[in-house]
């Protein structure tokens, strides 16, 4: 815990920019009619949503880092960028980015953390994050704390990327990506410490299915630590759980060259 507190010393002690935050109504896992659609969610502490510029649309304009801030809505830190004319925007902060640094989004530029360029112009072996899938739609993946993808090859208008999961996929070379690794990689070592912290984040208590009654869960019934009595574990709705592929077919599947590796299998 001491090492994690040291990483937060780089953050700027200031209130978020008023024109870059919005208030979002808390849904607590319920849909428009009030029915619970996501279990174990509830009210959380109040927080304002920071508007993040994932596409960094200010092309060919240098921006200066004026602050590094904590964002309660995501695991990574944010960098407040000020452009000429005084306009400010939030972007995802990479590791090694400091206050006073300058970053730019253009077709081709220097390999500095935070700089953004077309992925076809980035050399093989470089780490990138906040990667576009569709032109002009902004970064879509590699956005959480400590994540990055490595460029493996440039091939016929496409770029082959190796993701953190071990998956290898193609991305159109005209798409943009930022150089570096997303900030706050120590997030994976964070210890929650107590149930109260999770409750403040909006997570309500979770009960084991085997501790329920048979009418509430397929694993329910019996006394003590009795087995579930089924060939396979099941979800509360009776579908087979664990080890079953649940990913639906997506249009991006054709760009996957190698599926992610199951780390549980040795």
Fraction in helix: under 10%
| Main β sheet profile | 7 strands, antiparallel
How many beta strands in the DSSP annotation? Answer: 15
Number of domains: 2
What is the count of helical runs?
2
From the spread of the alpha carbons, the general shape counts as: globular
CATH topology of the largest domain, by name, is OB fold (Dihydrolipoamide Acetyltransferase, E2P)
Q: Kindly report the spatial arrangement of strands forming the biggest sheet.
A: 7-14-8-11-12-13-15
Write the layout of secondary structure elements.
Blueprint: H1 2-7, E1 21-22, E2 49-50, E3 63-69, E4 78-83, E5 88-92, E6 102-103, E7 116-118, E8 127-129, E9 131-132, E10 139-141, E11 149-155, E12 158-162, E13 168-172, E14 176-179, H2 195-200, E15 256-258
Give a written overview of the molecule.
The chain folds into two domains: 2-186, Beta Barrel (OB fold (Dihydrolipoamide Acetyltransferase, E2P)), CATH 2.40.50.140; 211-251, Ribosomal protein L2, domain 3. It has 266 residues and is mainly β. The relative contact order is 0.13. 5% of the residues lie in helices and 22% in strands. The strands form four sheets. It has a seven-stranded antiparallel beta sheet, with no helix packed on it. Strands 5-4-3-6 form a four-stranded antiparallel beta sheet, with no helix packed on it. The chain is built from two helices and 15 strands. It is globular and about 65 Å long. It has helices at 2-7, 195-200; strands at residues 21-22, 49-50, 63-69, 78-83, 88-92, 102-103, 116-118, 127-129, 131-132, 139-141, 149-155, 158-162, 168-172, 176-179, 256-258.
């Amino acid at each position: 815990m001491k090492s994690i507190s040291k990483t937060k010393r780089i953050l700027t002690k200031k209130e978020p920019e008023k024109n870059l935050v919005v208030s979002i109504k808390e849904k607590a896992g319920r849909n428009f009619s009030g029915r619970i659609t996501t279990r174990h969610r509830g009210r959380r502490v109040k927080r304002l949503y920071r508007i993040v510029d994932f596409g960094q649309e200010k092309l060919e304009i240098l921006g200066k880092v004026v602050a590094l801030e904590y964002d309660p809505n995501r695991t990574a830190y944010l960098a407040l960028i000020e452009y000429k004319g005084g306009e400010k925007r939030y972007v995802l902060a990479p590791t090694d980015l400091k206050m006073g640094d300058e970053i730019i989004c253009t077709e081709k530029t220097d390999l500095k953390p935070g700089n953004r360029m077309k992925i076809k112009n980035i050399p093989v072996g470089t780490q990138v994050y906040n990667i576009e899938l569709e032109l002009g739609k902004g970064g879509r993946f590699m956005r959480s704390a400590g994540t990055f993808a490595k460029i493996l090859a440039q091939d016929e208008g496409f770029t082959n990327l190796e993701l953190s999961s071990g998956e290898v996929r193609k991305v159109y070379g005209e798409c943009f990506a930022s150089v570096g690794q997303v900030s706050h990689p120590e997030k994976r070592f964070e210890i929650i410490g107590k149930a109260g912290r999770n409750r403040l984040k909006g997570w309500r208590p979770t009960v084991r299915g085997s501790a329920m009654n048979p009418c509430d869960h397929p694993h329910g019934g019996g006394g003590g630590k009795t087995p579930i009595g089924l060939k396979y574990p099941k979800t509360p709705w009776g579908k087979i759980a664990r080890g079953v592929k649940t990913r639906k077919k997506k249009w991006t599947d054709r760009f996957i060259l190698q599926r992610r590796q199951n780390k549980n299998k040795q």
